[in-house]
Amino acid sequence: MNAENITPVCGAGPAGLVAAITLARAGRRVIVYERHTEVGNRFHDDLQGLENWTTEGDVLEELASFGVEVNFTAAPFHEAVLFDPEGREHVYQSPHPMAYIVHRGAVPGSLDLGLREQALAAGVEIRFREPCRQLPNGGIVAEGPHGADAIGVGYLFDTDRADGAFVALSDDLAPQGYAYLLIQGGRGTVMSWLYDDFHRDREYLERTVAFFQRHAGLVMHDPRRKIGRASCRERV
Ligand SMILES: Cc1cc2nc3c(=O)[nH]c(=O)nc-3n(C[C@H](O)[C@H](O)[C@H](O)COP(=O)(O)OP(=O)(O)OC[C@H]3O[C@@H](n4cnc5c(N)ncnc54)[C@H](O)[C@@H]3O)c2cc1C
Which residues line the pocket of ligand 1, CB cutoff 6 A? Predict the structure, then answer.
């Protein structure tokens, strides 16, 4: 088979793998190039929200409509607690899931391993440790963010606390950004996303942890420091 019949994809993140699965199921031969040794390199059992409030339909049904199965943990959340800048609590509930909490990184049940498995089953070839440089005959660039205009500081941890989703909007916790606490199945992620005043990140993180300890019963076991970055073109 010559190169023109192969679609190269740069990056084995969710964007690259979903594109690869879709193309392979449509009969294309696909090679995904991934510069790291495994999928989900940026994440270590982080909890993330697959949001379900921005489209008419259900996000998992939307994924199914282009051939992506749910072979990863996707825990529906029907309630979220929002703290406004004055610290007032607002509880939002919905009969339809507001979000599905997924696990990220090369850990059992994660979105990343689930998509990798589906891609391989669809016949996609994934070449790890092979960075993409040029795509002279075209292809798909799915390399994730380049650069950053926000940084996220937080902890990944184990916990006995019940599942829950909490968001706080306050410049005291996350200037121009937001802080959140997600807990699902004994794992937790607490983050403060700063869009300004980056050099005081430790201070904002300490305040965020103290805030959720006070207002959401946060208890962390074995906390691991987490630092992330995002560009506004990336959704966090
Ligand atoms: C701490 C944190 C929390 C977040 N929380 C949420 C959330 O709750 N909800 C949400 O929707 N989103 C969240 N996000 C954003 C979400 O993680 C990203 O939008 C998503 O991972 C982007 O997927 P992607 O496939 O575009 O890029 P990535 O996941 O970054 O994957 C890109 C892949 O391409 C590879 N790559 C890069 N360059 C090359 C190259 N030249 N050659 C080969 N391979 C290459 C990388 O190694 C990587 O594996 C969060 C992000 C962070 C950092």
Answer: 10-16, 33-36, 41-42, 46, 48-49, 51, 131-132, 142-144, 152, 228, 230, 234-236
